[in-house]
Amino acid sequence: MGRVTVIRIRQAMLVAMAAVGLGAAMIAAPVVAAEPAASAPAPRLYPKVSHVAWVVPNLDKALADADAQLGTGPGNLVFRRVLTVDRGTYKGRPARFSAEFALVELGNTQFEFIQPLTGVSPYSDALKGRTGAVLHHIAYYVPSLPDRIAAARKANPQARVVLDGYLKGMDAHYVYMSGVLPDALVEFIPAQ
């Protein structure tokens, strides 16, 4: 990750903060004590962000760069493994692909780095015409995939499921949707 990637990471963090209700203006604004609310706060439309993910052409390099630039190290690595989607759909067609995933813990934030390995996937497509890391998605654990997909479509009729995938050998199902946040997919993962 070079300087441009660090800038993209910072931009993605702003998008992630906006996704959980923090505006970019809040980052630069001075802290001011809030007056007590006259009524109860509105219910949270989305749960807290699970992780922010980038697709990378070389996972070893991405992790080394994260170590050098963000201060992560082996103790911050939650997991690193190859996962295969063996059933589901990607852009309306059968999905069969694999990628290597690494999840890095940074205090209250997790970053995921994904290197595509085999098959046509949202990861291989994200790297087309690119030479470096690409912001890919922001992930949320949700109580119900059908309810969350319906809510996203109600909020934006153009929102669509791009990937509906199942991980081989695991009881794991997840979806990526476009049209929920600008410039990034949103991943919904059923809360267990």
Describe the structure in your own words.
- This protein is an alpha+beta fold and 192 residues long.
- The protein has a single domain (3-190), classed as Roll (2,3-Dihydroxybiphenyl 1,2-Dioxygenase, domain 1).
- Helices cover 27% and strands 40% of the residues.
- It has helices spanning 3-19, 24-28, 59-70, 122-127, 145-155, and strands spanning 49-55, 77-90, 93-94, 97-106, 109-118, 134-142, 160-167, 172-181, 184-190.
- Strands 1-5-4-2-7-8-9-6 form an eight-stranded mixed barrel.
- Strand 2 and strand 3 form a beta hairpin.
- The longest helix has 17 residues, at 3-19.
- The chain is globular and about 45 Å long.
- The two termini are 33 Å apart.
- Residues 1-34 have low confidence and may be disordered.
